[in-house]
Design a protein that fits this description.
This protein has 114 residues and is mostly helical. 64% of the residues lie in helices and 0% in strands.
Length: 114
Amino acid sequence: MTRKKEAGAKLRRYDEAFKQEAVRLWKNSGRSAEQTTQELGISVFNLYTWGQRANQLARAAGPTGSPVSKEDLVAENECLRRELSRITEQRDILKKAAGILSEPSPSGMPGLKR
């Protein structure tokens, strides 16, 4: 029961709005993917692919919880400022240490003590 593609048949292109609506209809209707695709006249494989891409995009967007409050942002900003200050101090100490270690010794030979 396989159908062969007719000669000269073109691949159908679907815009993003149609794809998103098809996935939304499938997920929210409670019907199977096969029933949804029969109603829309599309391939089941297309619907599965579009659904996977929608899930990937949703995961990439991050959690969709409540927006962050101003107090949370202020606290995070203060924490980041403290961390930046600490790391800047560490960097300055390392710069001074590298300068001290790279200075030539007074006797001319590194590590030679007289």
